[in-house]
Amino acid sequence: MLCAGKKSYFAAAVCIITVTSMLAVSYLQLQRLSHQPKVIQEGRRCRGKIANSTITALKGNKTFIISPYFDDRESKVTRLIGIVHHEDVKQLYCWFCCQPNGKIYVSKAKIDIHSDRFGFPYGAADIVCLEPENCDPTHVSINQSPHGNTDQLPRFEIKNRKAETFSVEFTVCISTMFGNYNNVLQFIQSMEMYKILGVEKVVIYKNNCSHLMEKILKFYIEEGTIEIIPWPINSHLKVSSKWHFMQDGTHIGYYGQITALNDCIYRNMERSKFVVLNDADEIILPLKHPNWKAMMNSLQEQNPGTSVFLFENHIFPETVSSHMFNISSWNTVPGVNILQHVYREPDRKDVINPRKMIVDPRKVIQTSVHSVLRAYGKSANVPMDVALIYHCRKALQRDLPRESLIRDTTLWRYNSSLIKNVNKVLSQIML
C-alpha cells in the first residue's frame, strides 16, 4: 500500500492528497482522451442538408442548435451555441467531415449549460467539441450517438474559421424583439443616438413586430445599419416573457434572450472591436466624453486588462414628461419621445441597479444579461459620473411624486443632432 508505514497524521494527510491528486489527473486525462476525435469512416463525401435556419431542432433529443463557431483561444474546438433541456440531454457527438481525404471524425461533446437558467427546464448551452488535428472542417453535424448514418442530419457551417480585421468599432446586440413591438418613435431615436455615439452596426434578434415597425427595419437594413437575425423560438418551445420560471409550463425565459446574446457575441467576435449588450429602450450616455470611442479609450487606459465594462441602469419614467421638445410632426408616430423624459428615479434603498455592458467579444466565453459568466480579463463597473444608461420605460417606483424624481438633461446635449437625424429618417420613410 502506498501509504504503508506512515504513522503521523500529517504524513497520512499528505498521502491521501497525493493519491487523490493522482486519481484526479488520471480521470482528467481519460476524460480528455474520451473527447478526442476518432476516425470512423474514410473515402466519404460530406452529405446532409446544410441548415439555413437560425434555430434548428435536433430530432427527438430536446436540443436546438443556433450556430457553431471556431474557437482556438484555449484549444482547437468547435463551440456550438444552443439550447438544451438541462436534465434530459446527457450526451452529444460532433461529426466532422474532412475533405478532400473524405475522413469522417466523431468527437464527443462537452455540454456546458449556462448557470443562469433561472429555473426554466431549457437553458443556453455551449456544446464544445475538439476538432481533428490535421483538418479545418467547414461544417459539423450533431448526433446523439457516435454510430450510425448521419446522411439525414443537418450540417452546420462553422463560422469564425478565418480571423478578420475589424470592419466596425461598435456593434449593438438587441435581443429579443417580440410582442408585436411598435414603439416606433423611440426605436428610431435610439438608432439615431447609437449612430451619433459611434455605432455602425445593430444586430436585432427579431421574433415579431408590427407592420409599421417592419417598414422601419427595412429602411435601416437597406441603409446598412441593422442586421436582422430571425428568432422563431416560439415555433420550438413555450416561451415566457418573464426572466424567471413561474411554474406555468413554459420552457425558456424571455424568448431565449440569453442564448441570443451569446450568439451575438460570437457572431461579431471577428468583425467588431466592441459589442454592446442592451435593449432598444436603453442608451449608454457618456457624461465626460462626446462619444463611445473617446469614452472607451479613456476607460481602457484607466483599467488595463479589463475586457468587460458595466454601466448602471437608470429609469426615466415615460409617464413623467417635460414640455420641451414637443415636436408636432412626431405626434402621429407611435411610441415615446425620449427628449421629453428627463426625470429619473432615485436609487432604491438596498436595491442594486442592474447593469448592461460594453465588452471585448474576443475575451468573453459566456455572458448573461447583466454580467458575463466567464471571460478572460477583468470586469469593471463604470462610475455614474462617467456614463449611465438612459432607460425610458414604465416606472418602477410608480408611487413617487414628481418632486422626488431627479431632473437629468444629459440627453439634451444631443438634441439638435438627434432632432435633425430623426426628421430626416421620418421624411425618407414618409411617416
UniProtKB/TrEMBL annotation:
Its main location: membrane. InterPro entries: Glyco_transf_92. Keywords: Glycosyltransferase, Membrane, Transferase, Transmembrane, Transmembrane helix. It is found in: Membrane. One of its GO terms (molecular function) is glycosyltransferase activity. The chain crosses the membrane at residues 9-30. GO terms for cellular component: cytoplasm; membrane. It is an enzyme of class 2 (transferase). It is a single-pass membrane protein. Its EC number is 2.4.1.-. Coiled coil: none annotated. It comes from the Eukaryota. Belongs to the glycosyltransferase 92 family. PANTHER family: GLYCOSYLTRANSFERASE FAMILY 92 PROTEIN. This is Glycosyltransferase family 92 protein. The lineage of its organism: Eukaryota, Metazoa, Chordata, Craniata, Vertebrata.
